[in-house]
Amino acid sequence: MEKSQSLHAYIKEELLNRIKSNEYKKGEKIPTELELCRDFDVSRTTVRTALNQLTLEGYLTRQQGKGTFVAEQKLKQTLSHTVKRYSDQVAVQGKKAVIELIAINVVPANEFLVKALDVTLQDPIQRIERVRKANGEPTQYEIAYIPWDVAPGITKEHAETSLYGSLKNDFNVHIAKTIEHIEIAFADERSSTYLHCEEGLPCFYIETTAENELGQIIEFSRSYFRGDKTNFMIERNYPLEG
């Protein structure tokens, strides 16, 4: 153990290694707190702290009266260049993807949307609120804004399939570029309701601006991803120096 590392951090790391090496398999019950205390020769408080952190981060789940179990593997999504739809990314992981529409409303552009979408104040904007699920479990809560003039009359069918695909196929609007900003946020009352989690759960928060080939802004969206259900992969290619 590193000198600067606390006991509970060391135990958390060891347990995480056992999970990731498949020593503790998905769905398997792990040793009890008492057994872990004996294994690591530490207090129950120390073990409990490590287990609580792993549970919050989505690696373990606790079942009342039954014990602590290894959680389902987190859903992986690619942030680097990819044209794969959400359903395709989920399918290769053996899960079924569903996109559920919460609501579509037309709202007047306020000062924020004027800046975000490069529109005029009071312009009609379609506000599309959705939840994405993998095997029935919510992983992403999203609010997207698309100007009416860009794609008038977006429907439930458009919203519950690939929105970018629908823009291209039904409205002849091609998304050529997206700019994404990612940070950590905590689930508030609304997002926690749709993500089926407690308020205050750490989430990945991503703001996305989508442009067409002319640089016109097509969409602005805000997405909350459950931190205990999702991780992201970033792939970079480095060209050989000449």
Automatic annotation (TrEMBL):
<dbReference type="InterPro" id="IPR036388">
    <property type="entry name" value="WH-like_DNA-bd_sf"/>
</dbReference>
<dbReference type="InterPro" id="IPR028978">
    <property type="entry name" value="Chorismate_lyase_/UTRA_dom_sf"/>
</dbReference>
<keyword id="KW-0805">Transcription regulation</keyword>
<keyword id="KW-0238">DNA-binding</keyword>
<dbReference type="InterPro" id="IPR050679">
    <property type="entry name" value="Bact_HTH_transcr_reg"/>
</dbReference>
<feature type="domain" description="HTH gntR-type">
    <location>
        <begin position="5"/>
        <end position="73"/>
    </location>
</feature>
<protein>
    <submittedName>
        <fullName>HTH-type transcriptional regulator YbgA</fullName>
    </submittedName>
</protein>
<dbReference type="GO" id="GO:0003700">
    <property type="term" value="F:DNA-binding transcription factor activity"/>
</dbReference>
<dbReference type="Pfam" id="PF07702">
    <property type="entry name" value="UTRA"/>
</dbReference>
<dbReference type="GO" id="GO:0045892">
    <property type="term" value="P:negative regulation of DNA-templated transcription"/>
</dbReference>
<dbReference type="Pfam" id="PF00392">
    <property type="entry name" value="GntR"/>
</dbReference>
<dbReference type="InterPro" id="IPR000524">
    <property type="entry name" value="Tscrpt_reg_HTH_GntR"/>
</dbReference>
<keyword id="KW-0804">Transcription</keyword>
<dbReference type="GO" id="GO:0003677">
    <property type="term" value="F:DNA binding"/>
</dbReference>
<dbReference type="InterPro" id="IPR036390">
    <property type="entry name" value="WH_DNA-bd_sf"/>
</dbReference>
<dbReference type="InterPro" id="IPR011663">
    <property type="entry name" value="UTRA"/>
</dbReference>
